[in-house]
TrEMBL record, chain A:
Transmembrane listed as a keyword: yes
Signal peptide (from-to): none
Organism: Myroides indicus
Designated name of the protein: ABC-2 type transport system permease protein
Sorted UniProt keywords: Membrane, Transmembrane, Transmembrane helix
UniProt GO molecular function: ABC-type transporter activity
Keyword presence, Transmembrane: yes
TM spans (from-to): 20-39, 125-148, 178-202, 208-231, 243-262, 450-467
A GO-annotated cellular component: plasma membrane
Pfam families reported in the protein's UniProt record: ABC2_membrane_2, DUF3526
UniProtKB/TrEMBL annotation, chain B:
InterPro entries registered for this protein in UniProt: DUF3526
Superkingdom field: Bacteria
Pfam families (UniProt xref): DUF3526
UniProt KW Cell membrane keyword: no
Transmembrane segments: 12-34, 127-147, 174-198, 204-226, 238-258, 419-438
Name of the protein in its database record: ABC-2 type transport system permease protein
Amino acid sequence: MTKLITRKTFRDIISKKQNLFILLGVWLICILSCFINYIQFTTHAASVESHRTEVREKWENRPDKHPHRMAHYGYLVFRLAHPMSILDKGLDDYLGNVIFLEAHKQNTANISEANSSGVIVRFGVFTPAFILQVLLPLIIFFVGFNLITKEKENNTLKLLSIQGASKKAIIFGKVKGLWHYALLLSLPVFPILIGLISYSYLSTFSDILFRSLLILFSYALFYFLLSSIVVGISTLSKNSSSALINLITIWLLMSIILPKAVQYTAQISYPIESRIAFETKLEKEILKVGDSHNPNDPYFSHIKDSLLNHYNVDNVNKLPFNYGGFIMKQGEKISTDIYNKKIKKLEDTFEKQYSITQYSGYFNPMTAIKSFSIMVCATDYYSYKIFQNQAEEYRYKLAQYMNDLQIEHISNDKSKNEIISQENWKNLPDFKYQYTGLLTSLQTQLTTCSALVFWFAISLLIILLSIKKLKFN
Amino acid sequence: MNKYLYKQFFQNKVYVFSLILLFLLGIVSIHTGVTFLEKNNQLMQDATEYQEQSIQKNTAHETHIGSTLYYIKFHLFNEPNKLTALNIGMRDFTPSLKGVTIRNLEEQKYNTDFYNPTSALAGNFDFSFVLIFLFPLIIIAINFNILSQEKESGTLKLLSLQSGNIKRIIDTKLLIRFLAIISIYFLLLLTAKLWIGIALDSTFSLFILLGFLYILFWFVLCRFIIASNKNTSYNALSLIIIWIGINFIVPMISFVLIQKMYPIEEALQTVIEQRDGYHNKWDEPQKNTIDKFHNIYPQFKTNDTIFNNDFNWKWYYAMQHLADVESMKSSIAYQSKIKARNNAAKLIGYFLPSMHTLILSSELALSDQNNILAYENKLKDFHKEKRLHFYPLIFSNQDSTVENWNNHKLEKFKAQSNVSILELLLPLFLIITILLIISHKKLRKLC
């Protein structure tokens, strides 16, 4: 019987001209936005690649020079978005695209798309994810709001029960019928997406397939929840128009009011330090340990004395290696350690702010699916953090490699103006950004994953409640 | 009769509740603005203090002034106005404070402050958000069924018998609702004015006028839909779809189109050019660099200087400056692309009230792209001023004690928004008039 009602509900929805029209319209804009995003992504990837090779060529072709000059010439690394961003751009537009890496100093990632887009960036970007997360729910609400109320208004519920339909069969049937329609709206997008994304060759096919399947599965679950909400509200409402108004209110709460309110709470609860405050404090903390520029600094004079003792010489210029390089190496190590500790604190604040959003996923299913989606599409904060961390690791490696070259190949006699061969530059491998593994992402964001499970349970509860509340007369 | 319609509105609990809700959300949004201004104020105080500390620290030892200036950052603060609290615009993810040394500017000017990208994506709960997104919703909620409900419950006939004119009933109902909403609007603005201390000057007046017209636009739009004389769900559906179209889909698609039409490649190119422009000079004879520098600044020419390969500060700062010169083309191209993007958005805005209201109110609130560009240009002048002040000292090999460092305090840049009243008024005014005329004709048919 459930099957029968499911099929009938689905056929009724599809046979309405209006709903067929919606179906075609959604497919059209979905495919359109897929292609627009695909073109944008490939342009972005090509630009990153050409800049990357340009930077590398320039690096390798630097003439012979003092290694410390190279440490300051530094490196430019460009952020490459994950191909899954074709589906869900997530934070992409707000992330810096280039970091300048040099010795002694950690720079921020600069030049985001939002910086150059004007204030209309506030309206958001048109992506397949927006259609799937925000528009489709509204469409599902509009299509299904009168599923039960219409039966009530036409007095056909009794007829159904006479024909042998139980309350359970009616509710389940309606939910599943609407759900099938929702799946029909969204499913055709996925083969196209997977095709486009894997065509970009920027990640392995299996990675993309697995991510896409997870997305597919989560959206299917989300639409099941929405369908049960629709049927639940339709059962509880007096008439069709109040059902519609209730559903629209729910949609508004989920899509704009709650997310903004959560955002407001997060920013009030965990304020962020300004960069100037951060850098001033950082500098102070580094100086507290030791100032490598100050010849009388106790920390560094201690190092000096022990070196002189160990090599049994009376002057640093007589040491068998480059003293300046050695001191810089120590300095780099100290400042990087302190920087990492401080930046960790800042990142923790960002994460605390985000955790409020994540927990709000238990109040707002749309937030739950959004957080899950950007996580699986690797366009979330954690992926960005990993990019930044990899860049910082590379910066440290570059600086210390140059210090080592200096220690080894440059004499202590400054008047000689020594340089070393450019062959050495090639020995520093290029920066290769490794995308965050899917499993790592899933493990670090269990809250987000379990929110989906939670909402599946809720959808079953809603169905049970509706069954209880459904009245035949 | 009017009294009855008035009562009908204010006795409806849902209506009163939505008005209160709107007011409360407005208050929260003003609080967001207050917090924002406080944070900015703190930033300004911090910057004043930190710059002082940094100068003190770096001038403690007597060294060549060129070496001192390598470390000292001079800060320029892009002062918000009080209205920024009502429209934070791009201010949360673009820096309001930039510090630069007199070394090359291009390397420093794109530096950002810390911001959480997750928060930036979610956007601010500021007054403009409440105005642009939430006011229309409440307007729709209290208007969509004013005709259809009477019709469906059968009271329309009774009403029209009493007054004889459906059009007048609808307009009276709309007017009552308009007065209610606009009172909330002015009450919120009054709260903001007192809480934040906004002066009632021409900028604020334009801001108020813009919001007023935007609210009026939504009422007129509702009138237009109501005049079609369809049933309740049709009205609700079409108004919500229009709301989503105006506030989401069309601006979002415009955004994508603008990005596509004006792709920005120059930014990354500038970064590369600036870096090479400077570093390549280390491998060239010093004389080349110095000569190029003297072509730009002949006033700093000296005859007696001999440039061998030893490090000297004149050569160093000449190298730094040439990096800016060599990346200038890309830098200017980048700026003009940004301007083009902004102008395209403005143009679309003339036809789309939501975009128009957001763009112009952020322009008034000094939180839009134009403000950022003006700030960048000011930063360039500021940087140049500092350079030209210090070049003579550096080139005559002075040490840091000759300068009176107390003169280098935090500087503030106060931009002026130059929104013309015509540009602000005309697009909305035209749309409103057109909608009024069409709905008028439709309503006349009804009677």
